Amino acid sequence: MNIVFFGPNGSGKGTQGTIIKERYKIPHIETGIIFRENISKGTELGNKARAYIQRGELVPDEITIPMVHNRLKEADCSNGWLLDGFPRNLNQAVRLNGALGREGVDVDVLIQIILKRETAKKRIMGRRICVNDSNHPNNMNFAAIKPDGDRCRICGGELKKRHDDQSQAAIDQRHDIYYDTENGTLAAVQYFKDVSDRKGIPAIVELDGRNNVEEVTRELIEKLGKFKFQVS
């Protein structure tokens, strides 16, 4: 089962991605990790990416797309993969799908967590990260998951803030890319939906991001359960 997973920063996508990884025994692939691995191993693409990163520039698609594509061809992806955080824009979606198609590989499922921009921003600024488990939900702005002081509501662990969570400018910059329906991430989502209309795949799974973590998980498992996937 090959999955592309979309959702704005603040939607809880990382938490749900971990659940899919464990349930279906497929690797949860994030572009940030791919960059770090290639740079640490000194691969040709990693060295090229390092140069851009050191200059404070975005790594161009000509480097990012082959790097992601190479990762999807590794042995642990033979039974499927969950791609999280990529593609981030329309061009990446078109080129990735083309590269996969030339090898006879399809994206089987598109998962999209739907959440309004204002709500996503409020969640980001209120969230607190548990030092014991970053997937423990704690948020100062939502009563249902509001921690007791500076301790995790799940395990009592220490809570910390992510520096970029408190920067409205940084949040707006990330959301500007995601919510762009012309060339950004939502344009990539629409591209795969158009492919689905033509080919019948990927299957489209839309989740209501307004719900709490447990409710989103139930909706996710219920909708994925309608498809005939092999679980190793």
Summarize the structure in words.
The protein is of the alpha/beta class and 232 residues long. It has a domain at 2-111 and 176-224: P-loop containing nucleotide triphosphate hydrolases (Rossmann fold). The chain has 9 helices and 7 strands, in the order βαβαααβαβαββααβα. The chain has helices at residues 13-24, 31-41, 44-54, 61-72, 90-101, 117-126, 168-178, 185-199, 213-224; strands at residues 2-6, 28-30, 81-84, 109-114, 129-130, 159-160, 203-208. The strands form 2 sheets. The chain has a 5-stranded parallel sheet with strand order 2-3-1-4-7, with helices on both faces. A two-stranded antiparallel ribbon has the order 5-6. Helix 6 (117-126) runs antiparallel to helix 7 (168-178).
